[in-house]
User: What shape does this take?
Amino acid sequence: MPARQGEMEKIALVIGVIGADVHAIGNKILEDAFSQAGFKVVNIGVLSSQKEFIQAAIKSKAQAIIVSSLYGHAEMDCSGMRQRCIEAGLDNILLYIGGNIVVGKQRWEEVEARFKELGFDRVYPPGTSPSKAIKDLREDLKMESKGYKNGGWR
Ligand code: B12
Assistant: This one.
């Protein structure tokens, strides 16, 4: 039986918390927020490796990987991730990251620049609402011009 049109056309996202990080609560909130915005959310949860993000993205044909990191070690955990995406054939996948991505307080412009250098398309400071990332996804994936009312059906 064919899937309903809306189900067929939902844009898939992979979300998760990278590295040895166990902070689980924000991850559940992000799952709810992206789901309610109409995206198909593949949540790989906490303690996720780069490989697990990439495999989930391949399997789900995701258009974006949304990385969370709360414990401050994101730079180490995300090193080489863009290159691994490319090697896995995910040439154009969007990479977003947010949470508390560095240890302590550092100048945000410098933090953002370092993560852009690592290949992230969007880098969010602590406390950023999921709605900001949803707005950016709509823009970066050109959803409006492609006729998407939200993450789901056209
Ligand atoms: C609860 C908590 C814990 C619990 C986690 C329980 C669990 N299973 O979830 C426990 C006790 C296990 C814990 C342990 C540790 N923690 Co802790 N923890 C917290 C605390 C108090 C709350 C986190 C939380 O749930 N917040 C509520 C949720 C809703 O918010 P959130 O996680 O920030 O997520 C939101 C946003 O960040 C954002 N977001 C997240 N990802 C993304 C991605 C994108 C793209 C976007 C747009 C937005 C976004 O949206 C989310 C939803 O609104 C914070 C302090 C704080 N007030 O935030 C410290 C905190 C995160 N922990 C911290 C630390 C240091 C640790 C430990 C290293 C402590 C230690 N020495 O052992 C360990 C690390 C353990 C590990 N391996 O991960 C630090 C991190 C410091 C840093 N990055 O510089 C914090 C900030 C405390 C502090 N001020 O020092 N912790």
User: Anything to note?
Assistant: Residues 13-126 form a domain with the Rossmann fold fold (CATH 3.40.50.280).
